[in-house]
Structure formats: structure tokens, C-alpha cells
Amino acid sequence: MNGMFGDDGGKGASQAYWNAFSKLREAWREVFDDELAKTGTRGMEAYENALVFIKSKLQQDKTGDRAFRAALDVAPDDDIGKALLAVDLDDLAPNVIKQAIRDKVEALREHGRARHPLRPLLRAALDALFESDSVRRPHVGANRHWERLHQYLRELENETDWTPDGRGFRLANAGGRGPVAQLPRDPGKLDVIVDPEYLWPRPRSA
Questions:
Q1: CA 80 to CA 182: how far, in whole Å?
Q2: DSSP strand E in 19-160: where?
Q3: pLDDT (tens digit, 9 = 90+) per residue, 50-60?
Q4: Number of helices followed by number of strands (H, E) in the chain
Q5: Residue 201 CB partners (closer than 8 Å, separation 6+)
Q6: What's this model's pTM, rounded to 2 decimal places?
Q7: Whole-angstrom Cα distance, residue 67 to residue 193?
């Protein structure tokens, strides 16, 4: 994973706890439409107190527990407290993630102009970023990572949009049904249309 993080060489332990607490708070707000209180002045204290509160609330709420874990991208058998402190997508620089996706799009050139399901493309890109068995691989789905990944996909669309001549990479609804929503909820319901003639670099005719 060397070289994948910001120029500061990685976050300190205290910041890592605050970052993890922020993930808890965002997921709690999304699932329960409520604010997760911050109790404690140190990152570790606030994080651990929040975990105790969450555990007490979700012990008898299996539906809420499943929804909360899905929003966090934490598997049912994983420990939430440990999972959110592990290296994940939030720790990677944007240009690194975009390049991983771009590499997988480039690999589709050999198929000519064609439609491909989005989920396997993102899965391959994330697998390339998280090769080590010691890190937790993000899931591709309607979770906290999707909004960020969707932003990068839209940026790649713009980079390869040579309208009116052609478009190298664009999102499409699976099955070709109507325009793609501004922020689709599930990458599993999307395809990508790749036209090698209009990928990087800019085509001469454009």
C-alpha cells in the first residue's frame, strides 16, 4: 500500500479515531435519521463511547443492525470497532482510486465499443488497490463508499466526453432503461458503455 496515502505520510492515531467516529456518525444519521452524540474530548474516548452506545441500541434491533452495517460496509461477522480503524478506501488519495478505475476501463478496449456491467469493473479496480490479505477490501454496493466512487466515475465521464464526436466512457442503467439518476443508489444496477475511439488521450478528430 506504499505511496497510496496523502503527502503527510498517514494520519496519527488520534485522528484515526476521530475519522472512525465520523464514519459511525454519518452511518447512524443515514440509517436512523438521528445524531450520534459525541461524549469525550479525545478521539479514542469518543469512538469507544459511541461503540458502547451503538451496541446497546442494536442488540435487540436486528434489522437496524443489518442496515447500519451495510451503510458502514462492515460484514455481519466483523467487529465494527476494528473494521473502521483498518485501512480502507477513505485512506487512499483520489488520483490513486481514479487511476485504478481508469486502468480497468483501458483493459476493456479489446472488446471494441460495448456495454459492460459496472460492478465487476469496480470490483477489479478495488481488488488491485487492496491486494494484501492484511487489509479489509471494500464491498461494491450501496454503502458509504459509493458516493465517492460515483463522483470519480462522473469525472472519468467528463474526461472522455468529446461531444458531438463521441464519448469514451459513460454510465448507463442496466438494460438501457432511461437516463441515469444524478446519484444512483446502487452500482449493481448500472452498466458502463466504453468506446475505445474516444478514451484517453483525446482523439485527433475531436
A1: 31
A2: 114-117
A3: 999 999 999 98
A4: 7, 5
A5: none
A6: 0.69
A7: 31
